[in-house]
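Researcher: I'd like a structural prediction for the single chain below. Treat it as a standalone chain; there are no partners to consider.
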Amino acid sequence: MTELKTKNVIQSLLDTDLYKFTMMQTVLHQHPAAEVEYHFRSRNLDLDFSDCLDEIEAEIAHLCQLRLTEEELTYLGQLDYIKPDFIHFLRLFRLDQRFIHLSCHQGTLELKIHGPWLHTILFEVPVLAIISEVYCRRHHPNPDLAGARSRLQDKISLVKSNDAHADFRFSDFGTRRRYSRLWQQEVVQELAQQLPLQFSGTSNLDLARRFNLKPVGTLAHEFMQAFQALGPRLIDSQKMALEAWVHEYRGQLGIALTDVVGMDAFLRDFDLYFAKLFDGLRQDSGDPVEWTEKALAHYRRLNIDPRSKTFVYSDGLTMHSALDLYRQFRDECRPAFGIGTHLTNDIMSHSPINIVLKMTRCNGQAVAKLSDSPGKAMSDDEGYMAYLAQVFEVDLATVK
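Model: Treating it as a single chain, here is the predicted structure.
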C-alpha cells in the first residue's frame, strides 16, 4: 500500500513526543553529566524481526543524520516553557549512532542504548516508531486502509453522537507504536478537522507544528526512574523528581505521573505541597476506576477539591473506554485522555505490536519501573527490583 509509505520513517527530530524535549531541557540544566542505559522489549513474545534488522539499522542511521532546522527551532522557542539556552544547545544537537547497539538472535530483536542521558534521551520514541513501521511494512504490507478509515469515522461519530460529550477532551498519544508516519498524520488531521472542540492536540511535536495544534505532554517514567540513582536516599527519589520538575517549570506542565513504583507509594509522597503545586495526575497502568477513586480520596483528605484537578488517562485506551471513564468521573474531576495505538495502529487484521524502550540504569546503578499492572515492570536487575519494592512497600508478585 504505497500511499502509507515514505522513503524514511523519521524526517524530523520533532517527530517525537513533547515530553522528551521537556525532560531533556531539565536534564541539560540539572543533570547534564548523567549516564544511562535503555533496553528494548517486545511484550509480544512471538515476533520475528530477522527480516527487519537491515532496514531498522538503515533508518536509525538516517535518524542520526537529522538536525533541527531554524524553522523548527523558532517553533520550539515560541513555547513559553522552552528556554533560550536549550534552543542554543539544540541548534548543535544530533543523535550519535555510537550510543545505540542493535542485533537480532533467532528472530528476537536486541537493542540497548548506553551513553549520556542528555545525548540519548531523544532516541526512544523515534526508534520505537521506526521498529513499528518497519515491522508493519514487512509483515503487514497491505493493510485494510478503507476499513481503517471507516473505523476512524466510527470513532469520530461516537464522540459526536451525544451532546453530553461536549466537554470530552482527548489527545493523540500514538507516535511510538503507529502503523506509519503518514497514517498518524492522516488520523490527526481528520480528528482536528472533525472534532475541533474535543480533540485537544497531539503529543507529536512535528504534527503539532505543521498543523497548528497544541503539543501535549509533561514527563515520562524515565524521569522519575532516574532519580532512583541521582539522590542520596532511594525512599526520597519520587519527591526529588517532583521537586526537580517544579524547579524547572515553576508551575507549568503540571501533570504528575503516578505509577513508577505504584499509585499507593506515589500518594504517600504526593503531600499537600505537591498536590497544590501540580495541576493533576496521569494514570498509565492499573485499573483506572480504582486509580481514580484513590486520587479523589487523596485530594479530599488534603481538603483540595478534585474538581479543580486534571486527571489524564493514557493506558491502552479506546474511544469507548475513554468515554466510559469520562461519563463516570466528569462531575468529580477534570478528566482528559491520551489515546495512542487505538488511533494510530488500528489498521491491520492483526493486533499491533506492543514494544517498549525503557531506562534500566542511571550512573551505573539499576533503576526500575514497578507499575500498577502485572507484566509492565521492567528492570535488568531482579535483586534491585526486589529491593525497590521493599523500600516502597510494594508487593512484587502483583506487578511482575
